[in-house]
Amino acid sequence: MRHTYREQLEGILGDLVTMTQKVAVAVRVGTKALLEADLHRAELVISQDEEIDEMRTDLESRAFQLLARQSPVAGELRMLVASLRMVTELERMGDLAAHVAKIARLRYPECAVPDPMRGNFTRMAEVAEKMVVSAGRVLADRDVAAAQDVQDRDEEMDDLRRSQFRSLLSDDWTHGVEAAVDVALLGRYYERIADHADSMARRVVYIVTGEFPEDETWPEP
Amino acid sequence: MRHTYREQLEGILGDLVTMTQKVAVAVRVGTKALLEADLHRAELVISQDEEIDEMRTDLESRAFQLLARQSPVAGELRMLVASLRMVTELERMGDLAAHVAKIARLRYPECAVPDPMRGNFTRMAEVAEKMVVSAGRVLADRDVAAAQDVQDRDEEMDDLRRSQFRSLLSDDWTHGVEAAVDVALLGRYYERIADHADSMARRVVYIVTGEFPEDETWPEP
Prior knowledge:
The structure is a homodimer.
Chain A: H1 2-35, H2 39-70, H3 74-107, H4 118-141, H5 147-169, H6 176-209
Helix pairs in contact in A: 1-2, 1-3, 1-4, 2-3, 3-6, 4-5, 4-6, 5-6
């Protein structure tokens, strides 16, 4: 019985890792849909977001059942509570990837991103995807040190966002209001995906160490 | 001992209600700062967000301690798990109110909102604040029926946001790119505050009934 319980716990963590992989794919494919004005890929990301939502419902219910039946303490309780939060963050990251795809669909057959901003978004999406993948790895291997990598990338994300605002608000912006609004919102979505990945990595640190990383070394959660 | 435990549970709910009130004030004062280009009020909301963050840390730790020491089941477990989530959502709503204040501060002494958009933002902020207040009331009184009110207002919020986009993207928009970007992001912040309030109200329904309201009658959480 105790063995089955451990297996159930590990099963939840394993499915969280799978969910992280699905989110990473959604970010990658959503970005392709955006930058290539690819309606098929956009629809794919939007419809697959439902699978991510379903995984959330299933994982929440399993974590709650374990809490109710096993009354875990210490490390196992920390793990279950952190899982309940990670699953919410992963679902949210999936929504944000779907938001990117929805803007791609809205502007189809045009591309929502003006040419001079392609480099910025390509890099932003790469950083966001890598952060999601790293957060998944931190979780899969309970690798606390690797969480620092997620945090470092979040700083690059902030730089990319600042550079985006500089382009948007410079006198050279000739792409009009609609493109500016799209860029501002898209930038916000990628930034939030990155924030959630960072927050996920911290939760793993919390599972492993019992301390939630805050203060000087980590920006606010 | 059992009595003290009940008191601790009620204390957590009571402090969540207090936190909700603080968030409602942050939304109201942040909006005043925005619409009146009031630097003092903007700074106030930004600095008071730290209090909301501290309440979160404190409440999380108390809820976790109760989970660990009392191994609650059924309704009490549901309540504690829901509390852990509500506290995250309230902290996030506080952040979003602070984001509004930061845009007010960034544009000071100018007003970030162009004149023709004042009515839209005044109403958006009213709806958001009322949703937060109602969510607090739903929580304080465990009033499941009142949760419907929160949901109805969320529909008005969606309408306001759509009307905002119509203004932004119409040929009559003469306020330039910077104002458009501000309006798009501000609208997003109010919309997210409303989403979190709606989600909070659902969590109360879950505490009371054991069923999380989804499907036809409620839009996705």
